Each structure stands twice: as C-alpha cells, then as structure tokens.
TrEMBL record:
Record keywords: ATP-binding, Nucleotide-binding
Gene3D superfamilies for this protein: 3.40.50.20, ATP-grasp fold, B domain
Disordered: annotated segments: 31-58, 334-370
PANTHER family linked: CARNOSINE SYNTHASE 1
Protein name: ATP-grasp domain-containing protein
One function term, GO molecular function aspect: carnosine synthase activity
Organism from which the protein derives: Dreissena polymorpha (Zebra mussel)
Length: 1214
C-alpha cells in the first residue's frame, strides 16, 4: 500500500513539475526576447561592421547569457539533492529541463547526421529517483537519436517515453539483462532478446541510470540495480522507462570500455555477483593476438607464421614452430612528447597506462637501443642488432622467403587495421623500419607482429550458371575477409551462429569498415566456386574451426579463478574470428588472423539489415537470404556426423521474420538461462516427500542452481529401519515426528543406536523420559531410492533444499540443506501434517522461497503447505481432485463451461464411476459398458489395473485387489495412504500418450508429448516409448490443448504436470493427471531432445518465476524399452551381459536409466502380481525406422526380447 501511495504521489509531483516548467519556460522566453531586441538595436547603430556577421555573433552571445541564467537556476535546484538510500526513496524534483530551442535541435541533427522523423522531446536525463533534475547531455541525446534512426529506417516503431510514471512490475521470468552500449553496437542483441523474453533487455546509455550497491550477504561483492533504461519488447517495440523500485540486474554486458566510447562501464562491472559477458580481463585475453594464435595452434586452427615482440605482456606465451615470441623492455629516458598518439589510451581502462604529466622521468619508447628477451630461452638478452637479426632470420626462412609480409600492432587500442603495413618479399629493411616505427606507438600489454601475408584463393572461370542474378567473376587482385561469429549456447556448447564476408583489394588492409557484408556462399560463387558440395565443405570447415576456438577459450576459463576472469560470473560467451581463405594444392581452407571479443556483431547486424530490407520491398523468387550456406537439397534438420560438432537448426535455416538477431540468438539463450540460474541460487525450497530411486537427479541439480533443500521424515511404517541401521553401524540424528514414532526408542536402545536432536510436539512427550533412561543417541539414517535423480540435480543448481520425508534412512538426507523427519504417510491427516510442517519451519527459523513435491502421493500435502505459507503453487482442492481419478473425470463431464476459443471440456472426459465398497459395484456397472478397466482411484501407475469383462469379474478383481493392496506398507507410492477405493472406467480404443506440461499462472509454457506402445496384456505396465511424438501436427495440437484444458479446468495453474491421455478416433481422452514432474526416463529424454530441464522448471515455478523455455526443435528420436525384474535381471546381474551393456553406453549407442537400485533388484521376487519396470534402455536415431531397427537389435543382443516379451511387436506401431 505504501508503494502504491508513493507511486501516486510521484505522478502528482510530475504533473506539478510540468506546470512549473511551462510557466518557467514562458517567462524565460519573454526575457530572451527582450535581451535579443536590445542587442539587435546595438547592432543597427554600427554601420562599419557586417550586419549579418554582427547578428550572428550577438545571437550567440545572447544564447550564452540565456544558458548561464538557466545553468544558475539549475545549480540552485541541484543543491537540494538528497542522498541515495537503501529504500530508493523518490526525491520530487522537476524531471524535465527547458524546452529545446530550434538551434539546439538543428545542432543536434548535424551531429547525428540524420533527419529527425521522431519525437525528440523525451526525458533522457537522470532518473527522478536520484533527484538531480533534468540535465542536458548531448552525448546521450545523440545515442538516443541514433537508436531512433535505426528503428525508423528498419520499420520498427519509435521509442515511447513512459518515464513520467515509474514502473513497479517486472517480467514474469524476472530476467533483467543490462547492456551498457550505444545502440548501433548492439541492435541485433536488443531485438533478439526483446523477442525471446519481452521486457528483459535494458539498454543503459548513462552512468546515472544504474546504481551499484554492496551485497548484503556477500562481503566484497556488489549488486547492480537499474533505475532507468530503454526496454525492448517483441516486434522491435521499445520504451523509455524508469523503475521504482529499481530492477536488480541479473546479467551484464559492457561495451562502454573506451576505444572512442565512454569508459565508465569498466568500474561498474568490477566485483559484481551477477553473470557478466566478457569482463575486462577476459576481453584483454581474447584480444591478445599472440596468446590466441598460440591457443588456436593447439586446437588445429591455422594462422599466419608469426614473429612477435611483446611489451610488458600480461600473460605468458611460449615460442612454438609457427610463433616466435620475444619480450621487449623499455629504456628509461627523460619525458618525451607523446601528443598526437591517439592509440596510447588503454581501451580497457587500465589506469596504469595513463600518461605521466609530471616533470620527472617517464617510461618512453626506445628509439635506438632496447633489450629483448626470448621467452622460450628465458634470460637471453638481445641487443638492437640481435633483434634485427631475428627479423632477418625470420624473413629468410624457406617457408617465408618469397612471401609478402605484414607488420601490425596488436592490442586493444589497435583496431580497424590501424598501423598495418604490407611489405614485398625480400624487403627486410622496410620491415625493420616498420617495427621500429611501431615501437613508438605501442603501450604496455601490446605487441608488434611480423607475419606472413595470406594469399587469397585463385578465381575460377564461371561456367554453366543459369541464374537470374548475374554473378561477377572474381578478380585476381581481390581477397575476401570472412568473419565468423561464435556464441556459447545455453548448454555451454559453442555454436557458429553466422558467417559474413567482405571483398576488397588484396593490396591494402581489409576490415569491416571498408567492405560491404555478404554471405559466404555468394562470396565463393564470386570467386567462381560453383560446386555446391565444395562450398558446403568450406562453410563447414570455417564453422568447425570457429567453434573449436571458442571451445578452447571456454576450457581455458574453467581453469581460471573468479578474480582472473574479472568476476564470479565472468565468462566469454561470444567471439568473432577473422579468417582469410587461401589455397594449397587445390585445397581451399581458412586461416585465422585474429579473434575479437564480445563487441563483434556490428557487421553481422549489417548483413541482417540488408536481408531484412530486401525482403521488405523485394520478392526474390521465394528465396530466403541466409547468412549460412543453404544447399539445394532438402535439409532434414538432423546433424550429420560430417558437419560441425554442434549445429543448431534455428541458426541454419532462418525464416524471413527471424533474420534479425540470428547472429546472437544462442548468446541470448545463454544470458537468459544464466539469469534464471542466478535467480535460483541460494533459494530455499521446501520439498515434501523424497520419493525413490527414479528421483535421484534432484539434489545435484539443485546444488548446481544454488537451491537449498530440507527433509521431514517419520512414521510407524519405518520400524524396519532400525535393525538394518544396527547392522550397518549407522548413526541417526534430526528425527522429527509424533506419537507414531514411539516404537523407535526401545528398539534403538536394544540395538545400541545413538539418537540426537529429537523434535516433535506434545504428542511426543513420552519420548524424552524414555530417551533419557535409555541414553539414546541417533544421527542421520537414510533410505529410499526411487527418486535418486532429484538430489544430485538440486546440488548442482546450488539450491538449498529443505526436505520433509517419512523415512529416516533416506539416502538424500546427507545431500540436503536441512533434513526434517515427520510421519506424513497417512494422507488422511494431510491438514494436520501441513500445520506441523509449518510450525516446525517456524520453530527452526527456516524461511522458504518455494514449496513443491516430486512424489505423487504428496501433491495435496504440498499444496496445503504452499497455501499456509502463501507461496506460488496450486490449491489443495485442485491437487486433491487431480489425485482422485473418479473426481477428475466427474468434474470434467459435469462442467459445461469451456474455453471460448477451444473445444468443450466434456469431449476429453471418459465414463467412470467410483467404487468404495462392493455395494457400489452394481451402480458403477450401469455407468460403464464392458469391457472396462478397474483401477485404484488414487494410484499414479498401472499397479492394480485389471480388465473386467462382466459383473463377476468386477466383484472378483475388486475383492482381490482391495485385500492385497490395503495400506502403504503393501505397496508404497500408489496412493494407499489416501484410500484403496477403486474406479471403473470405460476401455478406450486408441494410442497411448503422456504430455508433460509446464504452466505458470494458468498459462501454458511448454508441452512435450511422448508416444507409449501397447502394453503386454494382461499387464497394463508400460513396455516401450518414443519421443518426440509421431502424431500428425494437428493431432499433437489436440493433445496439447486437451491436457492444458483439463489441468486448468480442475484448478492446476502452477507447476510441471504429467498427463496421460489416449488418442481415439474422435479425439483425445483423459486417462490420468499426475500433479508432479514426470519421473522415470522423462527428464533425461526431454533434456536431450528439447534442452529443457523439467525439474528446474518446477523449482522456478515454485519460487514465482516463469521458466524461460528455449524453442529448439529436436533433431532426433529416442526410443526406449522397459526392463522388468522377472525377465531381465540378467542385464544387470550377469557380468558378461553387463560388460556388453557398459561398452554400448561408453560408445553412446544406448541410454540406460536405472529406476530401482541393484540392491532392490536382488531382493525382488521373480514374479509378482504388481511388477513394475526396474530400468529403461533407449537408442537415438534421426528417423523412426532407424530407431526401431536399433532398438530391436539392442534388445536381441542383450536378451531382452523373449517369447513372452516381444519387443518387436511393441515398437512396430510407432
């Protein structure tokens, strides 16, 4: 309420300011007119002076007087400024300055070199929250107008100024990417990020638009808050916004590091706790040509043979066959004039390189003598003559003798081919003179390179081209510069996103400013390379070398400390490599000449602008101009083994509307993913119920994300634990629970178990006297296995997990942040258990950011706890309805309401009836025709599912199932803690499918379909599955819509859900809703195919953050077969078969997922009525037919296919 009041007051103050400014402006205009008239009269009296000149001079003087008056008034107002405070209190000072005069606007237009076709009366001054008032900043206005010009000519709307009403809300993903840059250097980034996650990209043009504050919980680190920015949205829509409260930045990109731009970003990025792209130390490293050439040579990337002289290098580079490295030391001399040397300022903000303005001796460039030390032979001191000798020896090498030579400076301040000279073969003296000349121009940390010239490819004759576009034959005096951009994608793999080329004379330096960008394919055709396969091979070679170079940088940075990288979140995530194509023995290959750090996308965006422009106003026979080679044959979308190591389909075949931003698309995915990973770090998340072995991934993933987890365990059903604990010598601690745990202490005493940290309420009062009498001490006994995947994953994410579980022996106990044990097995007591959990959290002073469960039976309990803690989640009513099949179906059948734009809900429901006792059977039979299915009403799998063909079958099966499956001890995890009531459902004809759905605030975020093969009757256990679905696209749309509608209709709005449906001839029908993340193999398959982590999505939703989903189409199929204990134990227990399996795994031929532990497998009976799979074995292939063949071959080799388990029959229907 306070924020709302402050917000309204701020708006009111802005209105008052506007009135004040209008009155003040009118008064000042009158004063200006009087002053101007006075000076005009004086000019008329002077007849000897040129009238026009006098008027101009006097007008200038008048303007200066007016400006001085205005400045005095502004200074008076500025003196009233208040200090910044932690609460970011708004200081109500007039926001806008005086209205710009026509002369000022004309002057500004001249500076920008463009006609103004947009509104310039916008507030680009300091944020109102600082209380500085409006101060004119010509540089910022030029930045702003440049952005408007680009938006205007590319067809995007101009920026709308919304700064008068500071914004309170933030995007649902809570991603705040800040880029410190002029717009022309990052347009592709702005447009692409705005399209992927609207309102996440913030263009910051001025230092006062951000605020750096010490981190409250991390000493020595800082947080960055954005007070004002230009925000980017879909379709190129932009807004000038202010934020109150300020937005916390989650990812930073800094282009304001000097080199003709402001350098205030250098200080801003220091010691931040957020992810940063290419901080200063990493930029210096990547821009170091000598170091990069050494690293490229290590990964097989060709570069010119080089002789390097380095001045005070920041990193060690040894000499190798293709690089000779010397270190040059300056001599000390009296101060020498260095004015006019524009290259001397360190572009990365190194203050140690600033000019010395004192009268004392300074470090000067050597003019006659200097020392040079050969690094490889450390300690060998060379004279000036020795340096000349090294140059002569280098130039006289047989491989260099008759080749053209290039001499160039290398360092951050040398860009755009500054200082580069070419020298004919044998011109030794001119090379030496060029080196000595550059010694006067380089600064510490820079180098001089003497290298071989890369001879361009020879043009071929152009023959047999029957195309409407005339191609010009390449000239022998031309060369082409190839710029390949590589980004680190969200999964850490390098991707060559775009390749551009420029053609120019080979007799002068070639760079981005003296060439017009075009595609590599067009360039190769210009040089007469008409064979598509040859062009494709060249393009793949460039891609591979580019990706290998970025991978080398990534690997190198993994070895560096946070301080060396320039921050805890600092990494190189985009580079641009310049190649020249050369030829040897008829083979064309690229030679890399330099690597550029993250400010390398300007020319890439130029090509995108050219492509967009031609598509806006020209039709080229339906072609799509792509920055990568497009073969004439159809591309299947599956990566070839001969192609680059890592290829994203959305970077290969862009649609016309996707051209903008293609060069940075993988990078944007990375910054959005890293932002959400940052948001998850150190989150405290309450997980209700640990589950079993199939959830083992949770903890490592949570640790990776920085999430904290805690557990609650207990209950009479765990009485079996203590004998096992005694045998294992296990110590147990942190036991929480009620009266149902009274059996523990006598048992513990008899076995000599030590117990400590016993928690509970009044019902546990009996414990303490008994414990004292017995001297019991317990510490950490863990068990359970079916959800083991959860915990490693949670640990990897850095999540702090607070786990609530009934099993004190659960293995996850030592993997969580807090481990609490409460008996939650009896779900009829969910309301009281929820209260106990909340009370325990309060007693332990544990504050959680989210609450969820990965265990089906704990869905309603987790919903209750979320409601009590007021966390993002689902209502108890919705979670309970999802758990009870009969209730779900009845609600959908009886609810006539439907989505106005989607099919009616009753279309997806099937006939069913609940059976709580035998007396309900006759009534249920009237509702459902035979044959029908009899199921446990609260089950989450096929356990207890039987086909019934008549009334007698219903009575017989009902009696048998309810007598064998009564309580949780009879079979864990199938809902017996609620009831063993059953439901009779119609038997549907069709194909089975599961849909894993991600939802946030009742909005569909992602939906992924898995095809399920027919079951092995009479069992209804799953036998095999395939992902992605082979259904037609319209059928998939029906399935996704049905799943989303069913979830929304019963009230499930937040989380990750697993929906089972059957596709019939009349459309999809709902079978079951599991109100939790899909387990078994689902998470692994989804990560492999779609690069989406369902567990991470669930954690993010629980914390109130909408997951960012990367829309990448799958490039292969995964087909898997289930293994059951009664038939397939030998795959694990037989040493020979297991060695074969492990060999197949190591070669990547199969994906093997254990669903139960080996220990559990050893103790299982050979045959049970309610058998469940213990493992899944899967194969990957580009087509369904190939996947089917591979799966069948693997199953035959491992002995999985038997006469009673015919895999070939299961998978033939895919």
């Amino acid at each position: 309420m306070a924020d709302s009041t402050s917000y309204q007051e701020n708006i009111h103050q802005h209105e008052k300011n506007a009135d004040y400014i209008e009155i003040h402006s009118l008064a000042k205009q009158v004063e200006d007119m009087d002053t101007k008239e006075k000076y005009e009269k004086e000019v008329d009296k002077d007849k000897d002076i040129d009238n026009d000149k006098d008027v101009d001079d006097n007008e200038k003087e008048v303007n200066e007087n007016v400006k001085n008056i205005s400045t005095t008034e502004k200074n008076d107002k500025t003196n009233q400024e208040v200090e910044r405070i932690d609460g970011f209190e708004v200081n109500c000072i007039p926001l806008y300055g005086v209205e710009k005069t026509a002369d000022q606007e004309a002057s500004q237009n001249c500076k920008t070199g463009m006609r103004v076709m947009w509104n310039t009366e916008v507030n680009v001054g300091d944020p109102a929250i600082l209380g500085n008032g409006y101060q004119v900043d010509n540089a910022i206005e030029v930045f702003y107008n440049t952005l408007q010009y680009i938006l205007y000519v590319t067809g995007f709307p101009e920026t709308e100024d919304r700064s008068a009403m500071p914004r309170l809300a933030i995007n649902k993903e809570k991603v705040v990417v800040g880029v410190l840059s002029p717009a022309e250097d990052c347009m592709a980034l702005l447009l692409e990020c705005g399209n992927q996650v609207p309102d996440s990209m913030h263009l910051i043009l001025k230092e006062s638009w951000v605020l750096k504050k010490p981190h409250k919980e991390k000493p020595g680190q800082f947080e960055l808050f954005i007070l004002k920015a230009i925000t980017c949205h879909k379709g190129g829509v932009t807004y000038l916004d202010e934020f109150n409260p300020p937005r916390k930045c989650t990812y930073l990109i800094n282009y304001f590091f000097g080199c003709g731009e402001p350098a205030w970003g250098n200080e801003m990025e220091k010691n931040l706790d957020i992810p940063i792209s290419s901080p200063i130390p990493l930029c210096n490293q990547v821009d170091d040509k000598v170091w990069m050439r050494y690293k490229m040579s290590r990964c097989g990337v060709a570069h010119p043979e080089t002789l390097a002289f380095r001045l005070a290098p920041q990193r060690f580079v040894p000499s190798i066959d293709t690089i000779r490295v010397f270190e040059v030391d300056r001599c000390m001399k009296r101060k020498k004039s260095q004015t006019g040397n524009s290259m001397q300022n360190d572009s990365r903000g190194n203050n140690s390189n600033m000019q010395n303005t004192s009268n004392g001796p300074v470090e000067s460039h050597p003019t006659g003598t200097f020392t040079a030390k050969h690094i490889e032979n450390g300690g060998v001191v060379c004279t000036h003559a020795a340096m000349e000798l090294e140059i002569r020896n280098f130039l006289n090498k047989p491989s260099i003798l008759n080749r053209k030579i290039v001499v160039k400076p290398a360092g951050p301040s040398h860009y755009g081919s500054i200082g580069v000279t070419f020298h004919d073969p044998g011109s030794i003296k001119s090379v030496i003179d060029a080196v000595e000349d550059l010694l006067d121009k380089i600064i510490d940390g820079e180098s001089i390179l003497v290298e071989t010239f890369v001879e361009p490819i020879n043009p071929r004759p152009v023959r047999g081209i029957s195309d409407n576009i005339k191609r010009s034959k390449g000239d022998s005096g031309l060369t082409c510069r190839v710029r390949a951009t590589a980004c680190k994608d969200f999964d850490g793999k390098p991707v060559c996103s775009i390749i551009t080329c420029g053609v120019a004379s080979k007799h002068a330096p070639v760079h981005g400013d003296n060439t017009v960008p075009q595609t590599l394919d067009t360039t190769l055709q210009t040089f007469g390379i008409s064979d598509p396969s040859v062009r494709r091979n060249i393009e793949q070679d460039v891609r591979k070398r580019t990706e290998d170079t970025l991978q080398t940088i990534i690997d190198e940075e993994k070895k560096m400390t946070a301080e060396q990288r320039g921050g805890i979140g600092g990494y190189t995530e985009i580079i641009g490599i310049d190649f020249f194509l050369t030829e040897k023995n008829g083979h064309i290959f690229p030679v890399a000449v330099e690597v550029n750090s993250h400010d390398c996308t300007v020319n890439c965006h130029m090509l995108e602008c050219l492509a967009d422009m031609v598509h806006q106003c020209t039709i080229l026979n339906g072609r799509v101009l792509s920055s990568v080679y497009q073969p004439s044959e159809k591309i299947s979308g599956v990566c070839s083994d001969k192609s680059s190591q890592y290829e994203r389909r959305d970077c290969v075949m862009p649609k016309v509307e996707e051209i903008f931003g293609q060069c940075v698309r993988p990078w944007v995915r990375t910054m959005l993913t890293r932002s959400q990973d940052y948001l998850l770090q150190d989150k405290m998340i309450l997980v209700i119920g640990a589950g079993g072995y199939s959830n083992k991934f949770i903890l490592p993933s949570a640790l990776e994300m920085g999430v904290k987890v805690s557990h609650i365990f207990g209950g009479y059903s765990n009485k079996f634990i203590w004998p096992s604990a005694l045998e294992m010598g296990v110590k147990v601690s942190h036991i929480y629970g009620g009266y149902s745990n009274k059996f523990i202490w006598p048992s513990a005493l008899e076995m000599g178990v030590k117990v400590s940290h016993i928690y509970g309420g009044y019902s546990n009062k009996f414990i303490w006297p008994s414990a004292l009498e017995m001297g019991v001490k317990v510490s950490h006994i863990y068990g359970g296995y079916s959800k083991k995947f959860i915990w490693p994953s949670a640990l990897e994410m850095g999540v702090k997990v607070v786990l609530v579980e009934s099993n004190p022996m659960h293995f996850a106990g030592n993997l969580v942040h807090r481990f609490i044990c409460i008996d939650i097995e009896n779900h009829k007591q969910d309301h009281s258990n929820a209260s106990i959990i909340v009370e325990t959290l309060g007693e332990e002073n544990i504050s959680v950011d989210g609450c969820l469960t990965f265990w089906e039976d704990c869905g309603p309990l987790a919903a209750l706890v979320s409601e009590l803690l007021q966390l993002k989640g689902n209502t108890y009513k919705a979670a309970y309805m999802a758990k009870m099949k009969s209730s779900t179906q009845a609600f959908l059948r009886g609810n006539p309401r439907s989505f106005p734009h989607l099919p009616f809900m009753f279309m997806f429901a099937c006939k069913s009836a609940c059976i709580t006792c035998e007396a309900d059977i006759p009534k249920a039979i009237k509702c459902v025709s035979f044959p029908a299915l009899l199921k446990l009403d609260y089950a989450s799998c096929a356990v207890g599912t039987k086909m019934v063909k008549c009334e007698d079958d219903v009575f017989n099966q009902y009696g048998y199932i309810t007598n064998t499956l009564r309580i949780n001890n009879d079979y864990h995890g199938i809902g017996l803690g609620f009831s063993n009531s059953m439901v009779l459902m119609e038997h549907l004809q069709g194909t089975d499918h599961t849909i894993d759905v991600v939802m946030f605030e009742m909005k569909l975020v992602a939906a992924l379909i898995t095809d399920i093969s027919p079951t092995n009757l009479p069992s209804y256990m799953e036998t095999s599955a395939m992902m992605p679905s082979a259904l037609n696209v319209d059928k998939q749309a029906q399935m996704v819509s049905a799943a989303f509608q069913c979830l929304s209709e019963i009230g499930l709005s937040n989380g990750v859900f697993n929906v089972q449906m059957k596709m019939t001839h009349t459309g999809p029908k709902l079978i079951d809703i599991n109100a939790r993340t899909g387990s078994l193999y689902i998470r692994d398959w989804v990560k492999r195919l779609y690069h989406i982590d369902l567990m991470k999505c669930a954690l993010m939703v629980s914390c109130g953050v909408r997951p960012y989903i990367r829309l990448l189409p799958p490039s292969e199929y995964i087909m898997g077969v289930m293994l059951i204990p009664s038939l397939h134990k030998h795959v694990i227990l037989d040493n020979v078969i297991r060695m074969v399996l492990e060999g197949m795994q190591s070669r990547g031929e199969v994906i093997f997922t254990m669903l139960e532990s080996e220990e559990d497998l050893l103790h299982q009976c050979d045959k049970t009525d309610y058998e469940q799979p213990y493992a899944n074995i899967a194969v990957r292939a580009p087509t369904i037919d190939e996947a089917r063949k591979k799966a069948h071959a693997v199953c035959k080799k491992l002995g999985i296919e038997t006469s009673s388990y015919k895999v070939s029959e299961f998978i033939k229907l895919f």
